Give the backbone structure.
Amino acid sequence: MGILDNRVAVITGSTKGIGKAIAREFVREGSRVVITSSSAANVDAAVREFPPGSVLGCVCDVTSPADMERLINDAAAHFGRVDCLVNNAGISEQFGRISDSDPAEWGRVIDTNIKGTYNGCRAALNYFQREKINGKIINMAGSGTDRASNTPWISAYGSTKAAIARLTFAVAAEFRDTGICVMLLHPGLVRTGMVSGAPQTPELLRQLNTFNTILDIFAQPPSVAARLAVKLASGWSDSRTGVYLSALNGWRKKWLLMTYPFRKILKRIDRRTY
């Protein structure tokens, strides 16, 4: 028995990294899950890693409102209902100054992260209202969300994460008395392809030593965020719309900072890319 038994979740950007870790944890807790990506090959490869019947793979472009509406409807048609949407899909730009940035690349980050989250919220909210389901929406925070979290060199990404927080709390207030919960999850710092696979721009190379030290101190496996996502999707969050949970909150930061010298000496720093 799992705490998500008989529930159905749609998780965007879930063929790798944090999204796939959340999908794994949801399935482990009894949920059926819709795995999505804009790449059919990535969807097919990810689906094969899950127990038969536990997941449905769908190709979806989160920047398209029509695609997001079709995703929710296809998930409901296949599994009978949808109880939770995790708006996880996100990208970042090349590491560098905004004066050197490519406007088209900056726009793609906005389209995927902010518009993608908006499209997901809109599609799920319309479905929940139509079907009279007290559903849950989990949006993804990140660097740039918190007031003290500055994001030089990745200004597009940081700006989108600040905007997603404001969007989340605004929508939570709009639907406060409906039984629908709209929440925010900060996954912390995770060595995903988006972080570890960042293009080696001249600016990144200049900052690389500092960047790698920050990763060594604060990076965590995606399972930490996945467990928090399960908590948000479970009955724990009933009537708690507007909740914000972070895998890198104050006490966690202090613990990682204090244990860093010992982890370094004992060679227990996890440098895997998830």
Notes: The chain has a mean pLDDT of 94. Residues 8-199+220-249 form a domain with the Rossmann fold fold (CATH 3.40.50.720).
